[in-house]
UniProtKB/TrEMBL annotation:
Region (Disordered): 746-766
Name of the gene encoding the protein in the UniProt record: rhaR_13
Protein name: HTH-type transcriptional activator RhaR
Keyword Ligase in record: no
Comp. bias intervals (Basic and acidic residues): 746-755
Amino acid sequence: MKMPHRKVERYFGKFFSVMVVTIFLTISILSIILYMNFEKIALRQSYDQTMDSLAQTTQEASVMAVTAATFAKQIYSDQNVANLLNFPDVSALDIAVSIRQLTNYRETSPFIESIYVYNAEARTFYVTSDMNVPSVFSEAEFYDQELRNMLQNVNVYNTLMPIPRKLRIDGLVGNIAERERDTYTFLLYDTLSKKSRKNAVVVNIKETHLHKHIDGSLTNDPTNTFLIDENGTLVTNSWKTPMLSSLKGTTYIDRILRDPEGSGYFAAEVDHVKSLITYSRSDYLGWRYIRIVPYSVISQNIDSMRTKTMIVAGGILLAGLVLSSLLSRRIFSGLNHKLSRLGKLETEQRESVQAMRMDYLRSLLKGYTQMNARHASDRFERYSIPLDPLQPVRVLLIMVDDHLLFVNRYKAEDRKLLIYGVLNIVQELFAAAGIPATAADIGDEQAAVLLQMSGDAEGDRERCKESASWIQTAVSEYLKLSVTVSSSLSGPSIEAVHALYQQAVEASYSWVFSGAGSHIEAEEVEQNKTKRYEYPLHKEKQMIDELMLGRIADVRQLFREIIVDTAAYTYISYQFAVSHLTFALQNALRIIRSHSLTNEDWEFINLQLYMPHSRTETMEQFIERCMSLFDQLENQMNERKKSRQDELPGRIKKILDERYADPNLSLDMLAEELGMSATYIGRVFKQHTLQTILGYIQKVRMSRVRELLLQTDAPVGEIAERAGFSNSPYFFKAFKKYNGVTPAEYRRTGRGRTDDDGEEAGIAAD
């Protein structure tokens, strides 16, 4: 009895050791990971807090700028101040009223230091200030010399944008302590005026008002917050550096300036102290907000968190060891492991049986396995298939509509789950109705149902219709999918299931006629197969002729008639008609292009054959797509029609002038070469030349004959042949009719007579 106990103790010791080591390693690794992330977390928190503070500062600066701009605009449009701006001579009373109004504006806002109104024509400044200074200054006597220089070249400065500067006030009456003030100046002037000197309203804002919102800390505070412009110049005071000092050239400022549109944070040395520098992107004033926090301030929190983490980790380790020692003997048992293993085996067996069941049904439907009833009976019993192999059976094929959209919308794993959902719905529907049936996934996002029949043909057909309706309604409601169901004929037993499956597949191709969400019966397909389909070649030829003539409306009608007629037959007939039409239309368009006068590229219509596995386009959708393509073709042909008609007669004349000697030259040969109908080219030629093509050929030939008769001594028969006349009697008759004399008389008379201008006088009349 002791030996087993020792074995258990030994086994328990190993288990306890592994558990303790695992817990210790887990806590140690977690502690290391947490410690490594403390600094990153602290930096991020500091950055987030700083950015929140900088956002508030941005709002304060915006309020300051908007307020100053608003005051400047109000002053500029104030009727009481208008006299100071617009008239060189203003009475003392008007000046007093205006200065009082300016003072009211200044005292309205606590951060406005002073307001100037500058009259360029009088070269006079009118001033209201919180200092004890006069209200009127001439330009030469004005104490703010920098502003005086600014107004002499005022176009350099943007209107109503803050200009940081230092206002020198030493020596003013009543001012003893201050020598200069940090100020933001806002200028408002007429930007449309072409004058070199312009009237202006100037509002000066105290820098201290903005600074207390930026960094209200004392000078001994380790943090430092300030603003810089795009050139790295301070636009606020820093407790270390005065306003308008250039920080460009310092390492951390140059790094910030290299990222003009970004915001962020980084660690760097500032005045030999490792610090966290946080910066924002430029606001609409072009200013950037920067805060510098020494690393020691942040590391205090990190060290505290590290210490607390180590204490907590040690406590968890100690508590875990104690609890493991006290409770592990009681909970230690191999029973749970065995039960877990048994459950896994059961699940694996069930899944294995389900997989084998699906494989067997798939093989049965596709004819990959034995078909005798005895063998099927054994397999049905093994896989719990609720069918009698000796009873009549039908096959229902379930296909997801718009297969391409289905594939694009869902991943492969999701599509498999949806088909599995369809199978479950089918099984539950037929089980609830008490109808023996089984379903299988046959791939390509399709499912097949083996349905037990009663042997009553009409009753079985109605049951199939009803079953298809159940399936479509339930799948649409629960899975939000549209499916088409095709049903086979009724077979005498399970041995006919492969043939029945092929019937259902063949019937499914008729989806192209019925459309999505339909029920297709093999009975109707089999009836259509008995009818012989004859492709209407005469309609195709007529359609191509109409296309050559540019009559697209007739092309549309004939195309639709050819395609729609196939609906009374089978899918093969439809596919045959589509392929014939595709070839004929593409060939006709290539001929049109090859004879295009401009030799431009035509946009050929792309008539794609319907593929059964894609299930993306019905016959009506296909026709509609082709009609749209015909519309495009019609627009192209109409655009080229006028140009072609204008150039066609010249092209015909060129061909006839070059090939008049060909005895076979005719209207039909010319039409074939041009790729157009003889009727069309004859009509266009006569409209432009007022003569027929045959008449023009006769004219060219007769002109050549007359030329050869007068310039050569060749026999008349040879001349006629060289001019393209192969029939001598016809030539002599035509020549006399055309010229009024015989060829011999024309030669004799033409050589013997010369008109007054020295030209040959022939008897011919053109």
